[in-house]
Specification:
Elements: E1 4-5, H1 8-19, E2 23-27, E3 32-37, H2 41-51, E4 60-62, H3 66-72, H4 77-86, E5 91-96, E6 113-117, H5 122-131, E7 135-136, H6 151-158, E8 165-169, H7 171-175, E9 185-189, E10 196-201, E11 227-230
Parallel strand pairs: 1-8, 2-8, 4-6, 5-9
Antiparallel strand pairs: 2-3, 3-7, 4-7, 5-6, 9-10, 10-11
């Protein structure tokens, strides 16, 4: 499927592609993500293959709202307060994964936790609702390379490496070379003894020497101005 400008029809086609086990690149409020059905092991494996990403590096799972997140992971009071304050937005919560979540083991790199995010970008939100399933989506680039902020970046990085990729682009991209905001995302780790780990970092991860606790936490994406650990006020 060629690069498409955003429309109801292109969102529907992208959602159908995800349900069929194909990959879809789409914009978020940070950078472009390379999405796959998070419950489909083969689709998730292709994300790792296309990116050249080490399989010990788990992926962030995107969902449309808090209710969808609660079906996949266990949210305590702290997690619900954070979600109510910052979702939708560039906040990822690392939570205990529910045994009945249906998320592929490769998505979490076999960990008992799940990194979950509710993106604010209207294209991402529309795609999640149309696909009606959780989407595992790191940045749509080769691991270790600069994260993509335009559809052209995605095409250059991914087109030649995937036999099943489809993607949508912002309406602005269809008319110009304008870039996405490329902001920072925040990861908060909640599973252990109500302690919270905050780290401000780009939305996607790359390869590194140690197994990360969540997608995006490898050294190349961990700037010095991080705070760890901190407690959520009650």
């Amino acid at each position: 499927m060629p690069v498409e400008a955003v429309s109801t029809a292109s969102i529907d086609r992208a959602a159908a592609a995800l349900r069929a086990g194909r990959l879809v690149a789409f914009p978020t409020e940070t950078v472009y993500g390379l999405g796959a059905d998070a419950s489909n092991p083969r689709a998730v494996a292709e994300v790792f293959a296309v990116k050249g990403r080490p399989r010990f590096n788990p992926l962030i799972v995107h969902v449309p709202d808090l209710a969808a997140a609660a079906l996949l992971a266990e949210l305590d009071d702290s997690g619900r307060r954070l979600a109510a304050s910052f979702w939708p937005g560039a906040l990822t919560l690392v939570l205990p994964r529910r045994a009945d979540s249906g998320i592929a083991e490769l998505t979490t790199a076999g960990l008992g936790t799940l990194a979950v995010r509710v993106p604010a970008h209207p294209v991402a939100s529309a795609l999640l609702r149309a696909a009606d399933r959780p989407i595992a989506a790191p940045s749509a680039n080769r691991s270790g390379h600069v994260s993509p902020t335009t559809a052209a970046h995605v095409a250059a990085a991914i087109l030649r490496r995937s036999s099943s990729a489809a993607w949508t682009r912002r309406r602005r991209d269809a008319r110009s070379s304008a870039t996405s905001p490329c902001g920072a995302s925040i990861v908060i780790d909640l599973p252990i003894r109500n302690r919270t780990k905050l780290s401000v970092m780009p939305a996607a991860a790359s390869s590194g020497p140690a197994s990360p606790a969540w997608e995006g936490s490898l050294p190349v994406h961990s700037p010095a101005d991080s705070v760890s650990p901190a407690r959520v006020s009650s």
